[in-house]
TrEMBL record:
One of its GO terms (biological process) is DNA replication. The keyword DNA damage does not apply. It comes from Tremella mesenterica. This is Sister chromatid cohesion protein DCC1. Keywords: DNA replication.
Amino acid sequence: MTNTLPLNDIILRFPGDEHNDESYQLLELPGEVLKKLEGWNGSFPITIKGRPSDDAVLCTSDATFALRTVTISNSLLLCRAPPIQAPSSSSSSTSTLLKRSKQDEDSLTFEQSSRSIDEDSMTINESSKNGNEASTSTAKRIRFEGTDLLTKQDKRSRPTLEIRDTRHEILECVPIAGNVERIRTLLRPTAWKGIGSENETGFGGMIHRNERRAGGGYADDVKLRKKKYTRQQLLSVIQASEVELDKGLKERNVVAVDGTLLLLPPDKLHSILTILLTLLSIHNVYEHSKSVQVPVKEVMRELETYELESGLIRGILRLFGEIDDPEVNKTRGNKSEGERVAEDENDSEDRINARGKEERGEVGKNEVWKADIIRLVREVGNGILVDIGEKGMEVEMFLSMWRENVGENWNELVDLDLLKGEYLLNSSTSTSTQTVTHFPVHSLPINPPNRFTDLFLTRSPWKAEDMRPFLKGLTRDGDGKELDKLVARHVRVVRDQYGIWWFPRKT
């Protein structure tokens, strides 16, 4: 890194009254973000999200970070050249961090920085000392002298910097899981009502709300419009990265219809999925095959008899598989890599038009649907589980009903492990049978202490393998170390001849 420190002494001064109200926040970017930022062409997507009642988070395209204030013992002085001395052609000027020297109260030590922040034409440089010898070699000493001792030649030769702000803290980024559960909260009021219902896809839905009158009473006839969200609107209010949002939308069965997002509840979706599995059984050449292709036109023709919108049908097919056009892929596959890259760069308008056709439900001539059988079977079971609710059902009866709904071709795929994080098993004290009840992970608090408290109020002790599915969303996917830290903080582990048990840790 080039040393930007001045070769000679400099003059420090405070700005005039017109600049006294300036204030800055210093943000320390994590290494993974900084590495992407350095190799990124164009503007790098970094967004700080949060409602007034939320803790702010920083989001990139694929990761989410909590912002934590860290207090530092040294004062960081943010400096820059006075406006009248700054070159007109330059968009930024050198700034320096000053650290008070212990040996001399009247002197300041400049240190070169290993990280920089550029904001409003200001660059901040800071570095840590590597021993006394290393720091001495790069240090420059400066003394504040009376103005009467400075000659005109001194003033002309010494550069001047203004102290614009003094900071004693920085913002640190801590990796966390995106809060995608708000998706369900925002979209539930306008969720799909099922086959045969009049489910408007625009903003026409109305909802009643009691509102206090001027005289103290309540008016029951006040109507408010149910708000529908586009994907872009949801991205602005969900504290998660774009990748996490897309994954969360798919996991919660959300589709785009006519440009707005529609939540499909499992119990309402159940009947459509059984129809699709029956249709797939007809086209299944190999028994118990997990990969089946069906022409999209045939699926559309079958489901449109139930008065379903074509845009909704295509959205469901996208949720539970892929829509592919062999002819388009064949044509694209015959092109060179350079031609495909040029095509991708120049067809943004075509992509927008294609996305619009997708949401309107327009069907290509040769399109086929490659169904995800495992996901279909899982959601059928989840729909039955939602209907059961807290009243429960014997496990064998539940599995029998599940197999019957998916059909003979797919009944071997039925397994309770597909529904981990959605149910609880309870053993009867009077009989040897077990019952299954609906207990979804999304009904639990997102705050870790509250999550563990609720889980131990529901059952204590837990088997380790039974509780782990209900810890989803507390840490980033695949971050086993952070999850182990949470468990160690809230759980007391006991081992006996029956296995490993988790008890609440007493505080």
